[in-house]
Design brief:
eight-stranded parallel sheet, elongated, 30% helix
Length: 377
């Protein structure tokens, strides 16, 4: 949220146009909270959440590993000081030449979710470690990540068996319970599936050694969320329940939970209007919208806290929209957003909890608007 450092930066620098400001002190605190909550798990920061070099350098210096989705992200992590053994190529959809390039960089840990992907890895990265992503239902998540990635547990057994046959190291399984996951039981359900894959392959003499428990750790928006410590306790209990005293190596991949609450977007009210004289809902247009970095408002999945200079005045429901010439650039209409009646054109507002998935979702130049500026302090 808006720390004093962020407020001071905005007051003294007065950056023009919409911009994101990230406070590194909050990122550092979040890293230590994950470290304390899950002391036996390796932390692989999801680079896609916010790949700002300053954030990557800080996390590399703290000992973090990195979950990457492309060769470009691998190179970003290497440039930030991470060694290849601290980087996972976590995308299950990779061109064979990108696998080969990653292998040349020294990457030896790859995600898969199909026999076809295993065959590519075996050709381009011989002897590498692979983990198979298992489908989860994503129930309880505000931004589910099911269907596109992963396979059912029974198929994961086939995938890892084939990996072993092709000379790869069948290392483990992964899952992702869905982004902004607030249901502590979600990891229990997923770990039950992971254990089933471990057990089936053990009967064939294949010993898996690692469970990648993915991300999903939330940041606070309008509703309170459990603490990192609460997640740690729930996950440890689930691991003990399913694996007993033979708990495997574990990985977590926080992205939103690492940087979400460290960033604030400064925006300006461009227009306030109504669609009819008797309309009881005002339209508030900002200088940032879905194409400027707020893509996660799609389907109103993520509702960001918005701070205005007129908070405390009487409020009324508003539809929030961005500035582009695209009718899809509407943020909150199904559930209008309560904003002060006194809010006026030219007012600056702060959109909090925007440290993750904003700069990377920002369009390059849609309608001629420049990409979202970012300042890391």
């Amino acid at each position: 949220m808006a720390t004093q450092r962020i407020l001071d930066f905005l007051a003294t620098r007065r950056p023009e146009g919409p911009c994101l400001v990230v406070d590194l002190d909050v990122v550092r605190d979040n890293y230590h909270a994950f470290e304390k909550a899950l002391p036996n798990s390796k932390i692989y920061y999801a680079v896609k959440a916010n790949p700002a070099p300053e954030i990557l350098r800080l996390l590399a210096s703290l000992g973090s590993c990195f979950d990457t989705a492309s060769v470009a992200e691998i190179e970003m992590a290497l440039d930030a000081g991470a060694t290849p053994d601290r980087i996972s190529y976590g995308n299950t959809i990779k061109k064979e030449r990108d696998i080969a390039r990653a292998y040349e960089h020294g990457i030896r840990l790859f995600a898969v979710d199909s026999v076809e992907e295993v065959e590519k890895v075996a050709r381009a990265a011989p002897g590498a470690r692979v983990f198979c992503r298992v489908l989860t239902d994503g129930e309880g998540a505000e931004w589910p990540l099911s269907r596109k990635f992963g396979c059912v547990p029974a198929m994961a057994v086939d995938v890892l068996r084939q990996a072993r046959m092709l000379g790869l190291d069948a290392y483990g399984v992964s899952f992702h319970v869905g982004s902004q996951q607030t249901d502590l039981v979600a990891w229990d359900r997923a770990l039950a599936d992971a254990k089933a894959v471990f057990s089936a392959l053990a009967q064939e003499g294949i010993t898996l050694r690692m469970v990648n428990m993915g991300g999903g750790f939330p940041t606070r928006y309008l509703k309170d969320v459990p603490t990192a410590q609460a997640y740690g306790e729930a996950i440890f209990d689930a691991l003990s329940k399913h694996f007993g005293n033979r708990i495997p190596e574990t990985i977590i991949e926080p992205g939103r939970g690492m940087v979400g609450n460290a960033g604030v977007i400064k925006s300006e009210v461009v227009l306030i209007s109504k669609k009819a004289d008797n309309d009881n809902v005002r339209w508030v247009y900002l200088d940032i919208g879905k194409f400027g970095g707020l893509a996660e408002t799609m389907d109103e999945a993520i509702r960001y806290p918005i701070v205005t200079p007129r908070d405390g005045d009487a409020v009324e429901p508003c539809v929030l929209a961005g500035p582009t010439c695209d009718s899809a650039d509407v943020l909150y209409e199904k559930a209008p957003y309560p904003l002060p009646v006194s809010l006026t054109i030219g007012d600056e507002v702060l959109i909090e909890g925007t440290g993750a998935y904003t700069t990377t979702y920002s369009a390059v130049a849609f309608n001629g608007f420049e990409p979202l500026r970012s300042y890391v302090i």
